[in-house]
């Protein structure tokens, strides 16, 4: 069985609640909070576990929140390796406004990590006897330089592991320079990275993604929200359309997509099928509150729904699409 490890430099505990309407300077009556583990790589490991796979989450943690985070992961039967740090693991607050349906995310910066904590995490990765997939996902906290992706690329190469990156901002720029095997990013992140401005059409998104591919990155996946996802690898590319589902929360949808892609690739599926499965996982995640993520039975139903729509599209057009 391929060994999948995820690395989260800035984990958190997500507190999800809701109010009727956001108003300044008044007491707002919130719903019962839903408290869940959070952070990009942690969510990827959680989603893979929910899908029936196995992944180990690596992350730093400290204080009462750190102990709570480990307890929450144990409750979900998620394997993990943690590095103790000074300071308290951060909490994020997600508030849904019933009157508008809008969701507001308040992300805290998290504790500063020193070189000792960073080296402990890198050592935990490099010491694994088997490492087939390394997923680095989420933001970087204070104290961690984006150049850390160079070290991660070196470790992945030494282990002959596939390096998958899902991050943003300066960290994304540094990660891209190190040429990971697969980068997943949103349209907004792609536009910011390439300086392409507003990317509205698929043609514009394809052109911008091709620039990443030409820089030496093997595969690029661009999440398009309700429009699905665009994937590129070598001369091949395709657009996977998202199914229609009732959206409750989009928190963790991107992490569920990455989980589906990596789990599918670990089973020997081609990238086109892996991204299709990832889109199904991301769509399934939006059907639940907070960072509940995707559920295997719902993903399987969505996959069948997507296959039926693809067959109908091919019948109507009289030919097979590129994806």
Using the coordinates above, name the CATH class: Alpha Beta
* CATH architecture call: 3-Layer(aba) Sandwich
User: Radius of gyration, rounded?
Assistant: 19 Å
Distance between the termini: 28 Å
CATH topology: the name is UDP-N-acetylmuramoyl-L-alanine:D-glutamate ligase
Low-confidence stretches: none
How many separate structural domains?
A: 1
Number of helices: 10
Helix proportion of residues, in percent? 25-40%
Q: Biggest sheet: strands side by side, in what order?
A: 5-4-1-8-9-10-11-12-13
Taken in chain order, the helices and strands follow as EEEHEHEEEHEHEHEHHEEEHHH
The CATH superfamily is identified as Ribokinase
Portion in strands: 15-25%
Shape: globular
Overall pLDDT: 91
The biggest beta sheet reads: 9 strands, mixed
Structural class label: alpha/beta
Query: Could you give the count of β-strands?
Result: 13
